[in-house]
Design brief:
Low-confidence stretches: none
Largest sheet: 8 strands, antiparallel
CATH architecture of the largest domain: Alpha/alpha barrel
CATH class of the largest domain: Mainly Alpha
Number of domains: 2
Structural class: alpha+beta
Number of strands: 27
Length: about 600
């Protein structure tokens, strides 16, 4: 069985990523891209679906030992795990060097004390665990081939094959370093160059040291902010500037349930808010690259704007189920692709416009087509903002007039008015000011429950929705407005879990709820960070700080967060690590730092 979600570490090269468990097992890796087929899919099945374990040898029939200690090397994505055994102590360093050529996963075993017997077990299964590759020796190297893919395995120790698995048994002495590398290459091409593990390790460390050095945040939550920034950078697809929501698919929001989705794509919403956090902490190059990706993806037809695209801008992301995989802890189905790609989500126009506006405000070099795109998006909204949509949570039930969607449509118009007023674009200023007022009036009349003094999830509904917490954050209403305070208090009262975290919206157990799906889910971590933001904005700063620091305590030992927290099982759930959790962590840290609302 795979480990708990929080038992995993992330390593990656800004083109794909691997998850490494505490026992030294790589249970998830897609090659050569985030959205490629997995060669290790044990995370969503069993060992038969692919894994690579490297650690101290252990008796047959027993569980592999977990590392006594693990951490990232400084501010990097280089993982170091240490085991204390009866024979001595050993360290394994795992990383993926940023690359122009073949993707590599490098693992270096280092003896610390004593002489420790070690074992490497490599079971490659292509196409998400369904295809057993042809493994053979070529030019004194081991290669696994299946169709268009080949994976080359290089090490200095002797290997042998047994039960469709490649093994290496060896002993490591103090100061001795033994490297293992897998490299992907199209099967019709020449073999990839022989790896240079030590040089690659040095270059990878240099890369992260230089990148982190650009961070402009030096507040009290720097450790958490830096780790979140590194995680967001790791979710960036370097060749195009696209940003994945998470490097995994089908890690469940409800253990044993059906709420399992593929997040290895670029949601415009997630990418836009990610870029906002990067811009606010000094990272303009990523913002420039994403803006270029956006302009290519949207092309000349913003009327057909999708809510998400592939990492190179692909539009077709057809959803399918992999019925040979039982799912993480039997949470089926396992899905690849995402059928929500063609939903109407009007809030996306607001998030994209906000990101473009922030780039403009923080000195990103002017791009005339970006300004033209912004104007085209508003012309589309002008015609369609009054339509119902699927909303920020991508409901699979009927479309509704979601309040959050209307508020973000207002944001899109407001930021575009500011662009025109700055002199960097031309547009019908007075008409769009009237449009802005019309949307505002519509939301306040139809999306607000006067009796309960709270905004509601959608027009005419009684349900609450944590996305309403963004109302003061985007400037739709001031924080001291009684309707804002009433909404914050209502959400805190009706959507809080027993341990004080925030649900997205009500669910209905075995019955299909407002989202069209059966089952419940955990507390959505982004919403809990939004609550901390709002509490600080309405003057309850001590409460905001306590909630924020409680949220920080949910991170795993490496500072990583999944999408949700299950208050019943007391564990992380959902895809991992999740950009939509790490972005608001950064934003809340910045807000609390600016307000002085922190301990110590």
């Amino acid at each position: 069985m795979a480990g708990r979600i929080e038992d995993y570490a992330l390593i990656g090269d800004m083109q794909t990523a691997a998850l490494v468990c505490r026992d030294g097992t790589v249970d998830w890796l897609c090659l050569p891209r985030f959205d490629s087929h997995a060669i290790f899919a044990g995370l969503l099945g069993t060992e038969e679906h692919g894994f690579w374990r490297l650690g101290p040898a252990f008796p047959e029939g027993t569980q592999p030992p977990t590392a006594n200690r693990r951490s990232y090397r400084g501010d990097s994505l280089i993982l170091e795990s240490e085991w204390d055994t009866p024979r001595g102590t050993v360290r394994v360093t795992d990383f993926m060097p940023p690359r122009d050529g073949a993707p590599q996963l490098i693992r270096i075993v280092e003896g610390v004390t004593g002489r420790v017997p070690m074992r490497s077990e490599l079971r490659m299964r292509f196409s998400y665990g369904r295809v057993v590759p042809w493994v053979h020796r070529q030019d004194e190297r081991t290669v696994a081939v299946a169709g268009p893919d080949s994976v080359w395995f290089d090490t200095s120790v002797e290997t042998f094959g047994e039960s469709l698995t490649t093994y290496a048994d060896f002993t490591v002495a103090p100061g001795e370093r033994i490297a293992f590398t897998i490299s992907w290459q199209p099967s019709h091409k020449e073999p990839p160059p022989l790896p240079e593990p030590e040089q690659s390790l040095e270059a990878t460390e240099d890369f992260w040291r230089e990148w982190v050095g650009h961070c402009t945040y030096h507040g009290p939550y720097r450790e958490a902010v830096i780790r979140s920034l590194i995680t967001l950078k790791a979710l960036t697809y370097a060749p195009t500037g696209g940003i994945v929501a998470a490097p995994t698919t089908s890690l469940p929001e409800d253990i044993g349930g059906v709420r399992n989705w593929d997040y290895r794509y670029t949601w415009l919403r997630d990418a836009a808010i990610t870029l906002s956090s990067l811009l606010r902490t000094g990272y303009r190059e990523e913002a420039r690259a994403w803006r270029e990706w956006l302009l290519r993806a949207v092309a000349g037809d913003p009327d057909n704007l999708q809510i998400m695209y592939g990492i190179a801008g692909e539009r077709e992301l057809g959803e399918a189920e992999l019925d040979w995989l039982p799912g993480y802890e039997n949470s089926a189905p396992v899905r690849v692709g995402n059928g929500a790609a063609h939903q109407l989500q009007l809030d996306v126009y607001g998030e994209v416009t906000e990101a473009l506006h922030l780039g403009h405000m923080t000195g990103l070099a002017r791009n005339d087509y970006a300004s033209l795109l912004q104007l085209k998006l508003i012309r589309y909204l002008e015609k369609h903002w009054q339509e119902p949509d699927e909303g920020i949570w991508e409901v699979r039930g009927p479309r509704r007039h979601f309040v959050h969607s209307k508020v973000m449509a207002w944001v899109a118009v407001d930021r575009t008015i500011k662009l025109i007023e700055s002199g960097d674009a031309d547009g019908p200023l007075e008409r769009w000011k009237e449009l802005r007022d019309d949307i505002h009036r519509d939301v306040c009349e139809k999306g607000y429950d006067k009796e309960r003094n709270t905004f509601t999830q959608s027009y005419g509904s009684k349900e609450l929705d944590a996305s309403l917490l963004i109302i003061p954050q985007v400037g739709f209403l001031p924080p001291d407005d009684k309707r804002v305070i009433g909404t914050v208090e209502a959400i805190q009262r009706e959507l809080s879990t027993p341990d004080g975290f925030i649900l997205r919206y009500p669910t209905d157990g075995e019955h299909a709820g407002v989202d069209g799906l059966p089952g419940d889910e955990g507390a959505f971590l982004a919403c809990s960070f939004w609550m901390a933001d709002d509490l600080a904005m309405i003057g309850r700063v001590d409460e905001a700080r306590k909630l924020f620091e409680k949220l920080l305590s949910l991170r795993n030992d490496l500072g990583l967060l999944a999408e949700e927290w299950d208050p019943r099982l007391q564990r992380q759930v959902g895809n991992f690590p999740q950009a939509f959790s790490h972005v608001p962590l950064i934003d809340t840290a910045l807000r609390l730092t600016a307000s002085g609302a922190y301990g110590g």
